[in-house]
Amino acid sequence: MPPGFGVLSAAMSHPARNLCGMNNSLEGKIALVAGATRGAGRGIAVALGEAGATVYCTGRSSRARRSEYDRPETVEETAELVTAASGRGIPVVVDHLQADQVAALIQRIDEETGRLDVLVNDVWGGENLIEWDTPVWEHNLDGGLRMLRLAVDTHLITSHFALPILTRSPGGLVVEMTDGTREYNAEHYRLNAFYDLAKASVLRLAFSQGHELDAYGCTAVALTPGWLRSEMMLEHFGVTEENWRDADAADGHFAAISESPRFVGRAVAALAMDPHLRSRNGGSYSSGELAKEYGFTDVDGSQPDCWRYLVEVQDPGLPADATGYR
């Protein structure tokens, strides 16, 4: 099971709330997607742009300088995609482990807009540090501890500076991006102790922030994508977003049930437009389940139900077959 995989059951049950056809829009709303350079963060930023939001897109990789990932995706490119999608994308190079840089970012947002409606804590950056199924005493210690810092410290630092603005008015939304829902991660070992703790910590962070935000009429949730077709995952399988179904030769399940980053992005946009958002405070959700409730689709018009597929098809060792799961 590759990193980024996991569509899992919800922490709470809710009546269906199909937002399709409604006139809800995020025009005039201000969002910060921390960790928007690639993957889920980019998909979320663009989906918020689809809904008309102004999106501050942050990350460490720019056209002037790459992060240690040494990949071509940049925050400038993400911002341009947001603008092309009908929003307004604003790129800002920020290392979210550096408190002074985050403080300067939030001060800029405050000075330029005077508000913050949506905060998405998507910073991760730990793929290259994962040692699969390696016990804590054998895992590289520096790598494991940095994984925790990247996954947890970045989110705490960003929330510390951003929430005083977000809480000025009721209705603000904080989305903590993770891998796996609360229920699933409580019952399953996730790759290694460091990764397991990182993802469990982010789930708990959504719950604790929800408790603290409640008095201000704001909401915090944890959100997980399914088997994400990130840029790194597409490269791993030797395909592109245009021909990802050709990955059957490498892994039939990826071709059957994977989802684009835009899918989880549309989950964030739907949450931000939900007039009943407050009832979700502190909950843990997946892109697949929210698609059923809100009625949004992936870019190909499907609604990949990765969690049900995982439980009913992949885990039992059955042949890949997406029939009834998209």
Question: What characteristics describe this protein?
Answer:
globular; alpha/beta; 11 helices; Rossmann fold; 41% helix; disordered N terminus
Spatially, the strands of the biggest sheet line up as 3-2-1-4-5-6-7
Number of E strands:
7
Put simply, the count of helices is 11
What class would the helix/strand composition place it in?
alpha/beta
How confident overall, as mean pLDDT?
A: 90
What profile does the largest beta sheet have?
Answer: 7 strands, parallel
* Global morphology: globular
Order of helices and strands: EHEHEHEHEHHEHHHEHH
For this structure, what is the CATH class?
Alpha Beta
What proportion of the residues form beta strands (DSSP E)?
A: 5-15%
What is the assigned CATH homologous superfamily? NAD(P)-binding Rossmann-like Domain
| CATH topology name | Rossmann fold
Number of domains: 1
Radius of gyration over all CA atoms, rounded: 18 Å
Which spans of ≥5 residues are poorly predicted at pLDDT below 50?
1-16
Helical fraction equals: 40-55%
User: How many angstroms does the end-to-end distance come to?
Assistant: 19 Å
How would you explain this protein's 3D organization?
- With 326 residues, this protein is of the alpha/beta class.
- It has one domain: 3-Layer(aba) Sandwich (Rossmann fold), CATH 3.40.50.
- It contains eleven helices and seven strands.
- It has a seven-stranded parallel β-sheet with strand order 3-2-1-4-5-6-7, with helices on both faces.
- Helix 1 packs across helix 9.
- The two termini are 19 Å apart.
- The relative contact order is 0.17.
- The N terminus is likely disordered.
